[in-house]
């Protein structure tokens, strides 16, 4: 089974940027997504991308600020996060999906990376 490892999290001031990366241990012929979980809140979908990278989707709260991308040759997926807000503070997870369309059920999860945005 493919394993996923996230990196790139950290502490940033509001208005700043971070780039998260997700490295897969092998080829993933799957749609993939970034999800996040803030303290005391349920895990929520952030962004998804289909296998080819030709289709993407974003939560309303991050549209226009975050960009998801993938490089299948390198087995990596990224999330460029700009104009960060304190409410973006959460543990961010990458995951493979059973499908791109809703219900967008995660299959394989990474261990998560912490993003903290200070005001």
Largest sheet, strands/sense/barrel: 7 strands, mixed
Quaternary structure annotation: single chain
Along the chain, the helix and strand elements come as EEEEEEEEEEE
> How far apart are the first and last residues' alpha carbons, in Å?
40 Å
The helix content is under 10%
Number of helices: 0
Query: How much of the sequence is in beta strands?
Result: over 45%
Inertia-based shape: globular
C-alpha Rg (nearest Å)? 13 Å
What's the β-strand tally? 11
Brief rundown of the structure:
By secondary structure, the chain is mostly beta strands. Helices cover 0% and strands 50% of the residues.
Protein described:
It is a single chain. By secondary structure, the chain is mainly beta. It has strands at 4-7, 10-13, 18-24, 32-37, 44-49, 56-58, 66-71, 76-81, 90-97, 106-109, 113-118. The strands form 2 sheets. Strands 2, 4, 5, 6, 9, 10 and 11 form a 7-stranded mixed sheet that branches. Strands 1-3-8-7 form a 4-stranded antiparallel sheet, with no helix packed on it. The chain is globular and about 40 Å long. It starts with a strand and ends with a strand.
Observed structural traits:
7-stranded mixed β-sheet; 11 strands; 119 residues; single chain; mainly beta
Write the layout of secondary structure elements.
Blueprint: E1 4-7, E2 10-13, E3 18-24, E4 32-37, E5 44-49, E6 56-58, E7 66-71, E8 76-81, E9 90-97, E10 106-109, E11 113-118
Parallel strand pairs: 2-11
Antiparallel strand pairs: 1-3, 3-8, 4-5, 4-9, 5-6, 7-8, 9-10, 9-11
